[in-house]
């Protein structure tokens, strides 16, 4: 028996989700965004499984992540690093064949000044005002890069969570305009939410991240994505409390009836959300067990009164999975699935099935 939390990572579900998304836009090939340790699922195992399924384009944020990924997968895959590279990263980039996505004209100038500059991609800012070459600089960019054009040109949607927003259509028009300056580059535009917006948004490659792991915006009718992981915490103790008693630090929850509680090994020290105190929930055998009191560093107490038969030391309570949807758990804590899965720390053992 183990008294530490575990994440069972479902590689087959992640591959199935990748195939589902790949089929959404038949003219476009799905890549895979595996930054932040494949959103907490384990980059080496996830990338190898996706590569085996036919994925040949991977996206990370940092070139160091790209180098780690290159060491994990076979040779015939493109790895792009969103946050770009400094010329002093050129050796790392060459050694691991990572393609940096350059995000501003000065960085592109510096890159092209390298002797034998490695391949690079360019991010066009079509409205996020965060990263990328601005629209007014695109024709200058085309001139600057005419003798050594980018191999990949991309942009990123501001609000793919809300498919009805006009800004998506405006960004698409700007991206089409910008992309027309780079006829030989591969193009990508859609993250997970963008993959549900129709063929116009697909271009050559789509860049799903959170959807591969079963999270993201509400799905269109008829589309299903499966959980990328099941996060579970073992019950350490079971105890009964009387009306008027409280639980945990700060006595933030007072019971008005007699309850059965279970304390499990999981906390914010594992990356679970402290904001889920008195708001989030677990599942025991499909029965909802609310989190009562604060989330501590290594412990959470749940109300197992409705599931008292199942609440035994050593039994595992689910905190993310088929019974506790990632986005629902995150929403209750006032955040998004991205933050919950990417935050899970090293103490959560990853088990692959
Ligand atoms: C993280 C990221 C993605 C993936 O987004 P999801 O919403 O997780 O699908 C795609 N493109 C860029 C530029 C990103 O930073």
From TrEMBL:
Cofactor(s) the record lists: pyridoxal 5'-phosphate
Domain Alanine racemase C-terminal: 228-353
GO molecular function, one term: alanine racemase activity
Residues forming the catalytic site: 35, 249
EC number: 5.1.1.1
Modified residues (N6-(pyridoxal phosphate)lysine): 35
Pfam families in alphabetical order: Ala_racemase_C, Ala_racemase_N
Reaction catalysed by this enzyme: L-alanine = D-alanine
PROSITE patterns per the UniProt record, alphabetical: ALANINE_RACEMASE
The keyword Isomerase belongs to this UniProt entry's keyword annotation: yes
Pathway(s) this gene product operates in, as recorded in its UniProt entry: Amino-acid biosynthesis; D-alanine biosynthesis; D-alanine from L-alanine: step 1/1
Keywords, alphabetical: Isomerase, Pyridoxal phosphate
Record bears the keyword Cell cycle: no
Stored InterPro entries: Ala_racemase, Ala_racemase/Decarboxylase_C, Ala_racemase_C, Ala_racemase_N, Ala_racemase_pyridoxalP-BS, PLP-binding_barrel
Binding site for substrate: 130, 297
HAMAP family for this protein: Ala_racemase
NCBIfam families in the cross-refs: alr (TIGR00492)
Role noted for this protein: Catalyzes the interconversion of L-alanine and D-alanine. May also act on other amino acids.
Family named by the database record: Belongs to the alanine racemase family.
Identification of the protein by name: Alanine racemase
Organism name: Henriciella marina
The organism's taxonomic lineage, starting at the top: Bacteria, Pseudomonadati, Pseudomonadota, Alphaproteobacteria, Hyphomonadales
